[in-house]
Amino acid sequence: MYIIAGLGNPGRQYAHTRHNVGFDTIDVLAEKYNIKVEYEKGRALTGSGRIEGQSVLLVKPLTFMNLSGESIRALADFYKIDGTSQLIVIYDDISLPPGQLRIREKGSAGGHNGIKSIISHLGGQEFLRIKVGVGEKPAGWDLADYVLSRFSQEERQKVEEALKRAADAAVCLMTDGVEAAMNEYNRKVSE
Question: Which NCBIfam families match (predicted)?
Fold first, then answer.
């Protein structure tokens, strides 16, 4: 079984903000594979089903971004999954341009509080991640204000495509492995 967790903040006021691209990617997967993500478990909205022959749990933590690790750890413990190979976390990255993806097997939090929380609660940095580029913070902006802002119309088009690619990347991680997923999805997207 795999847990695919998209990070974001619960509540309508945060819907479709830069910080919620993880939630948006879970929505893409749920729709594509007809999985209802509506059951509360482990302080998250969850939905279980099958994707390309793999048993999966789609997860949207309800703990707010900075406490994502609490929810992820509770679910990982409950389902007895190996966090290094059966957990895929999808989240926003301000160091990547809008629409660009980056897949990693491990690494630091890079200043992302949701990832910092997961590393703290899992006790290590080794878990599969899909970073979705949301663009660099403009000069003079507060970081929190920026990640909680919405995309411009032009950015949104790139991000919509990136969400579909991030969903496909999660499937590729499960079916073809990390190296194949990195080779396919870490390539630079043309502007």
Answer: pth (TIGR00447)
